[in-house]
């Protein structure tokens, strides 16, 4: 009984702190669950011609953006619908571009992720431009 | 009327002082979110295109969590040992014993010796005990601090002597008296100890720099120095790192500020 009274007194006095710590813990928990569910390292996108038609068998190059290392770019080829997928990507910042003979090269786009291995879909397609 | 006018002027002054204190912190937060160069002219008050990417870079480009955990472990050791040892010393100084005056004088004179002058003997002692590159070695110079001993002493002096007499009549041992009677009554002193020692330990730079050889044993302030070698000093990553380093200190202070202020004032009102 005495112990219960002491615990309830402590609880009343420290309610604000307990709520604060609980809120921080909850946010961290939700964030960790979100990361766990979205950390397969999948980067998707689509390559299109200037007219907006999907381009098949275009080569997409993805290069990690680092401070002091020059790394070999990764490459994938697009499917019938112009889609490409990179898997198991462990980077937080990268530059991506596409090219195909006869179509030209796309602009280089730079993207930053929020956590390592984040699943990411390019917000806009890579547009191949003739003559570039 | 005159009194109201004085109040008004005092408030205007306080608002100006508040702004002067808040602006650098606001600027650091803004730079950490925008990466904007500090020397941009004209400076923009409102952040343009804020993002959290600089924080992400800090997290991944240096072993941030490792440094953070090192700082947390060392600070925890420092805070706990300060509360225990300083309380014991403060309690002992409440007694009258031969040579007490000389001990207090020694303490006071030691407070005037800067740590930098004793750093070589401290290093040699730590090496002798085999504590280089360890958390305990990192915490060692701060395990007891003189100013906090006096914070405890002044708080304990304020405890009614009748409580001490009653405990003695009941045959209570000294350590029980300290931990069951005096410490529960000295919450402001404990809060002051927590905040001061946490801040000192968290911001400690020179000692960890000297006694750590492995990168994995480094603390956050050393991480900041490492960051400076990567980035130019106005980059968003550096300010993001600064915000990540100071946030725990601000949280600890905000959680204990009421007790901290009363702890600092308790010595001031004593005769």
CATH fold-level assignment of the largest domain in chain A: Immunoglobulin-like
Radius of gyration of chain B: 23 Å
Q: What share of residues of chain B is helical?
A: over 70%
- How much helix, percentage-wise, in residues of chain A? 25-40%
What is the global morphology of chain B?
A: globular
* Weakly predicted, low-confidence segments of chain A: none
Helix and strand string of chain B, N-terminal first?
HHHHHHHHHHHHH
| Count of DSSP strands of chain A | 9
Sheet with most strands of chain A: 9 strands, mixed
Biggest interface and which pair forms it? Answer: A-B, 11 and 9 residues
Strand content of chain A: 25-35%
CATH hierarchy: architecture of the largest domain in chain B? Orthogonal Bundle
CATH topology of the largest domain in chain B: MetI-like fold
Could you describe the largest sheet of chain B, including whether it forms a barrel? none
The CATH homologous superfamily of the largest domain in chain A: Carboxypeptidase-like, regulatory domain
What would you note in describing this structure?
The complex is a heterodimer of chains A (132) and B (271). Chain A is α+β, with helices and mostly antiparallel strands. Chain A is built from two helices and nine strands. Chain A folds into two domains: 2-37; 43-129, Carboxypeptidase-like, regulatory domain (Immunoglobulin-like), CATH 2.60.40.1120. In chain A, a hairpin with a 3-residue loop joins strand 5 and strand 6 (104-106). The longest helix of chain A has 23 residues, at 15-37. Chain A is elongated. The N and C termini of chain A lie far apart (81 Å). With 271 residues, chain B is an all-alpha fold. Chain B folds into two domains: 1-51, no CATH class; 62-266, MetI-like fold, CATH 1.10.3720. Chain B is globular, with a radius of gyration of 23 Å. Classes of the chains: A alpha+beta (132), B mainly alpha (271). Chain A binds chain B through residues 17, 20, 67-68, 92-93, 112-116, and chain B through 51-53, 56-57, 60-61, 230, 255.
């Amino acid at each position: 009984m005495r112990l219960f009274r002491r615990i309830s007194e402590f609880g009343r006095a420290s309610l604000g702190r307990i709520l604060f710590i609980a809120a921080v813990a909850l946010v961290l928990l939700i964030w960790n669950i979100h990361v766990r569910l979205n950390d397969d390292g999948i980067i998707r996108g689509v390559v299109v011609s200037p007219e907006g038609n999907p381009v098949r068998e275009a080569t997409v190059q993805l290069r990690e953006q680092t401070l002091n290392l020059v790394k070999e770019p990764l490459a994938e080829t697009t499917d019938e619908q112009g889609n490409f997928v990179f898997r198991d990507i462990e980077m937080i910042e990268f530059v991506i571009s596409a090219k195909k003979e006869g179509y030209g090269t796309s602009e280089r786009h730079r993207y930053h992720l929020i956590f390592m291995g984040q699943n990411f879909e390019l917000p806009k397609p890579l547009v191949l431009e003739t003559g570039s | 009327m005159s009194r109201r006018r004085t109040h008004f002027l005092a408030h205007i002054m306080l608002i100006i002082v508040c702004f002067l204190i808040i602006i650098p912190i606001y600027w650091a937060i803004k730079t950490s979110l925008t990466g904007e160069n500090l020397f941009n002219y004209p400076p923009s008050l409102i952040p343009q295109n804020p993002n959290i990417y600089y924080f992400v870079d800090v997290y991944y480009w240096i072993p941030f969590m490792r440094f953070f955990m090192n700082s947390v472990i060392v600070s925890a050791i420092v805070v706990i040992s300060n509360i225990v040892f300083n309380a014991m010393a403060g309690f002992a100084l409440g007694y009258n014993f031969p040579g007490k005056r000389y001990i207090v004088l020694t303490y006071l004179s030691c407070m005037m010796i800067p740590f930098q002058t004793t750093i070589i003997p401290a290093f040699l002692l730590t090496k002798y005990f085999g504590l280089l590159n360890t958390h305990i070695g990192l915490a060692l110079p701060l395990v007891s601090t003189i100013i906090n001993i006096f914070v405890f002493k002044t708080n304990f002096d304020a405890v009614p002597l009748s409580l001490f007499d009653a405990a003695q009549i009941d045959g209570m041992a000294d350590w029980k008296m300290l931990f069951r009677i005096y410490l529960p009554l000295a919450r402001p002193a404990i809060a002051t100890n927590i905040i001061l020692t946490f801040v000192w330990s968290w911001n400690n730079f020179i000692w960890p720099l000297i006694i750590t050889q492995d990168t994995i044993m480094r603390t956050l302030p050393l991480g900041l120095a490492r960051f400076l070698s990567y980035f130019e000093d106005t980059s968003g990553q550096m300010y993001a790192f600064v915000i990540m380093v100071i946030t725990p200190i601000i949280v600890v202070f905000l959680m204990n500020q009421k007790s901290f202020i009363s702890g600092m004032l308790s010595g001031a009102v004593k005769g």
